[in-house]
Every structure is written in structure tokens, then in C-alpha cells.
Design goal:
Elements lengths: L5 E4 L6 E3 L3 H10 L7 H18 L11 H15 L6 H17 L6 E3 L1 H11 L3 E6 L5 H7 L8 E4 H4 L6 H11 L7 E5 L2 H10 L3 E5 L3 H6 L7 E2 L14
Helix pairs in contact: 1-2, 1-4, 2-3, 3-4
Length: about 240
């Protein structure tokens, strides 16, 4: 039997995936308010906007006293502006309405998909391990898990904004150990798609870690031991770490 007692997962792009690119979703919602957006341009600009805003107001602005809704509204506004939409007074109102609608939309199951094989793996792992979520996410996480019928697999879910600390801070991994009533980090494993925020951060906290990456070019660029990287969740079951 594996010595592991706890397995935690990142949520976005590990358990959940967006059904369509962010630009398509934004453009579709914006259309309801009479705003025409270039979906491809939004998809291109959004990652830059997100990382830039995170750099100045990390963890969805919790330390700055703003709400997650306000943080995301700023992100949407910036992404739209960078796609060459002039923020006239009329457009500002349209973008504000779009941001509000998007915040509510992404709190529902509609824009997300869960691979059926993922739920089979979670169900199998739950029989022998305690499972949890550690995600840089806002307070919508728990309700979203319920709407997607995923809460049944996890003993706990830590959303970084609600916890007041985000990955890669080792404190968030310590919090997970507390929730699981586990004292030895070497009996815990974290799985996620971000090399720095998931894999390296968990390792720095004394945990075992598995990088979830199906991009062969990226795997070649950032080599990780083959026993610590997977392209599909079902590969977890074959790793030596879970066979000990």
C-alpha cells in the first residue's frame, strides 16, 4: 500500500477545463450588452492582463481590501481595453455589465467541463487516500464544486483568497495538512499543471509533487523526472509513488 495519506489537486486545468477559450466566452457574453469583442485578441491579451494584475494585487486583491468581483472587473476591463476597444462612457457601461455577467457565469457549471475519466480516477483514489483541493481561486470555488458534483470526492477545498494565502507560499500547503490532520508532509502529494505554483511549491513545502503536463515541448524545455510528471490523470495510478 502507498505510504501516501493525502493527495491534493489544483483545480483549473487539472480537474476543470474551460469549454471554450476565454476570448470566445467573453465575446459571447459581451454581445448580450451590445459590445463586439475580438475573441482571438481577448484570448491573446488575457494571460498578460491576469499576470500583470496578479503582480500588483495578488490573490484577487484580498490584502488590498477589494472583493474578488472588483478584482475580476478590473481584469475584464483591462483585457477589453488592450484589445483596442475604446472605453468611451457608453462602452464603459457595457464592459462593466459584461464583467458582472462573466463573474456570475464562471460561478456556474456552464463554462466548465470535467473529463469523465477524471472522476473515475478520483473515485478510485478516494478509496485509499484522503483527497483535497489547493487552488489559487476565489470564494466561488466550493459552490462551483457542488454545481459540478465534484465535492463528493474531496475532504476539503482550499481557495486561496478565502484562506488569505496563495501558492507558492508554503503556508497554504501547511493549511492543507492541518485540514487533513496530517503532520508529516512526506505522506502528502500535490498534483497540478503549473510547474512553479504547483510542482516546485509543493516540493519546497516538503511534499511529494506531480506535474500535470501534456505539452511535450514544455516537458522537454523543463525536464522533470518521468516518475513525477503525467499527461493524463489516470497515469497517477501507475506511478511508483502510489505503489509503495
Amino acid at each position: 500500500m502507498s505510504k501516501l495519506k493525502l493527495i491534493t489537486f489544483d483545480i483549473t486545468n487539472t480537474i476543470l477545463r474551460a469549454r471554450v477559450p476565454v476570448g470566445e466566452e467573453y465575446a459571447k457574453v459581451a454581445c448580450r450588452f451590445g459590445l463586439n469583442l475580438d475573441a482571438a485578441r481577448i484570448s491573446q491579451e488575457f494571460p498578460k492582463v491576469f499576470s500583470g494584475l496578479w503582480a500588483v494585487q495578488p490573490n484577487f486583491g484580498v490584502a488590498d481590501g477589494i472583493t474578488a468581483r472588483q478584482w475580476w472587473s478590473t481584469a475584464v476591463m483591462a483585457a477589453v481595453e488592450r484589445s483596442d476597444v475604446k472605453l468611451t462612457e457608453e462602452n464603459f457601461e457595457k464592459v462593466s455589465a459584461t464583467a458582472e455577467a462573466l463573474f456570475e457565469h464562471y460561478a456556474t457549471a456552464a463554462p466548465w467541463m470535467v473529463d469523465e475519466s477524471s472522476t473515475h480516477i478520483l473515485s478510485s483514489l478516494k478509496r485509499t487516500h484522503q483527497l483535497g483541493i489547493i487552488s489559487n481561486f476565489d470564494e466561488r470555488l466550493e459552490n462551483l464544486l457542488e454545481k459540478l458534483d465534484l465535492q463528493q470526492y474531496f475532504s476539503f477545498a482550499i481557495a486561496s483568497r478565502a484562506a488569505g494565502v496563495c501558492k507558492p507560499d508554503p503556508t497554504i500547503f501547511d493549511l492543507a495538512l492541518q485540514k487533513a490532520d496530517i503532520h508529516d508532509p512526506s505522506t502528502a502529494l500535490h498534483v497540478g499543471d503549473d510547474l512553479a505554483l504547483d510542482f516546485k511549491a509543493a516540493k519546497s513545502a516538503g511534499w511529494n509533487a506531480v506535474w500535470f503536463c501534456s505539452d511535450q515541448a514544455k516537458r522537454h524545455r523543463y525536464p522533470v523526472d518521468e516518475t513525477e510528471v503525467i499527461a493524463h490523470l489516470h497515469e497517477l495510478l501507475t506511478l511508483p509513488l502510489l505503489q509503495r
